[in-house]
């Protein structure tokens, strides 16, 4: 279990470094009460993580295995499309 916790922490921490959410929090903290920004941003991240975990645990039970495999490919494809679009717009 500790291995999963550490791997998840490392993956999310590295993925979030320098993304637009972190930059938005940085900007908000420079102009507002940093504790309020920390609480708001932390709560939002916690809520979105809870939603992802609930969906990740629920969908495999509701959908056949072939559908979840397709869902993984669709999610990966969307990730690549958004990445390419971001590079193109930069």
Number of helices: 4
Low-confidence region ranges = none
Mean pLDDT: 88
Sheet with the most strands?
A: none
Termini separation (Å)?
Answer: 40 Å
Helical content (DSSP H or I, runs of 4+): over 70%
The 3D shape can be described as extended
Beta-sheet strand percentage? under 5%
Query: In sequence order, what are the helices and strands, one letter per element?
Result: HHHH
Output the structural class.
Answer: mainly alpha
Instruction: Please give the radius of gyration in angstroms.
Output: 17 Å
**Based on DSSP secondary structure assignment, what is the total number of beta strands?**
0
Topology (elements, then pairings):
Layout: H1 2-16, H2 20-31, H3 34-62, H4 65-89
Helix pairs in contact: 2-3
Q: In a nutshell, what does this entry contain?
A:
The chain has helices at residues 2-16, 20-31, 34-62, 65-89. It is mainly alpha-helical and 90 residues long. The protein has a domain at 2-63.
What does this molecule look like?
The chain is mostly helical. The chain has a domain at 2-63. It has four helices and no strands. Helix 2 runs antiparallel to helix 3 (34-62). 0% of the residues are buried. The mean pLDDT is 88.
Relevant terms:
90 residues; 4 helices
